[in-house]
Amino acid sequence: MYRSPHVRWVARRPPETFPPPRPPQNPGPAPIPRYTYLPAWGLRDEPVTGDDPAVTRPRGSALPATLRVTAIALAVTAVVHLLRYVLLVINRTKPIPGWLDTASTILVWAAGVVAFLFFCAATAAVVTWLRRTRAAAYRRHGLLEPRKPWQIAVYAAIPLVNLVGAPFLVRELLEQRDDLDRPAAGQILRRTAIAWIVVNVAAVAALCTRFIASRSDSLQTGADGLWLTIISTALSAGFVWFVLPGLVHVFDDTPHVEAPARRWVQVA
Where is the composition biased (Pro residues) (predicted)? Predict the structure, then answer.
């Protein structure tokens, strides 16, 4: 009977060994997670702490050289357009040779294309410098860059958008740099923004006048467009050579060592 396949043995614990029942838990609603920035799901990118110059300092050594070359290209373009304007003035009283007119036209187009290429290179260099400098500034406070790279590129590189977007990005950068002289840096930023607005207004005026001149046969309208192009290009060259490097120097972390006025040389 006990070995019958219809009998099953079941082992049970004694009732006195049972654990006491757990009380019902009612912790309430779970807290809602909040983030100071939009989380990017995946591995967490911890800010690097240390004094590694390659990490804490953005590398912008190529930016000053790019700005200088771009300013030179813009200045050369302004001079070439000025020569073209002088030829147009001379042509009003007496005709100029055809080869001279053709040569000046080719020179104007070539200088404009070269200046545009250098302008694109300078814009890319400034966007790269701004992205790295902002990342380093936020890293000082243990934060991540809240702006995406494409947002920085749109705000700082798209014409007319960068009229407001570029000063806005630099203003955010200045708010993270508590090691700087805020009043002095803010004054430089305001001067740069005003100069930037003047340069863009001159460029838009020159483009509109040149477009109107291309649609009409008026020599005076063409001369006015050429003259506005000279002014716009000269203002752009001055902005790139004088104003923009000053703003970059404000956020430069590279220590500046003054060279001694007198150097002693040991004579054997």
Answer: 16-31
Q: Assign 156 to helix, strand or coil.
A: helix
How far is Cα 145 from Cα 173, in angstroms, rounded to an integer? 10
Distances (CA, A) of 238 to 18, 67, 98, 266: 88, 11, 34, 44
Residue with the two structure tokens 């046969």: 217
The gap between the terminal CA atoms of the chain, to the nearest Å, is: 119
pLDDT in tens, 100-152: 999 999 999 999 999 999 999 999 999 999 999 999 999 999 999 999 999 99
Tokens read off for 44: 């967490």
Residue type, 91: N
Q: For residue 14, give Cα distances in angstroms to 10, 11, 21, 77, 236.
A: 13, 10, 16, 100, 93
Cα separation of 50 and 41, whole Å? 26
Domain residue ranges in the chain: 58-250
Q: Name the pLDDT band for 27 (thresholds 50, 70, 90).
A: low
Q: Which two tokens stand for residue 165?
A: 């977007």
Q: What pLDDT is stored for residue 41 in this prediction? A: 63
Q: Report d(CA 104, CA 108) in Å as an integer.
A: 6
Measured CA to CA, the distance from residue 248 to residue 60 in angstroms comes to 9
Q: What is the dihedral of CA 58, 64, 66, 67, to 10 degrees?
A: 120
Distances, alpha carbon 244 to alpha carbons 61, 70, 128, in Å: 14, 12, 15
Measure CA 22 to chain center.
61
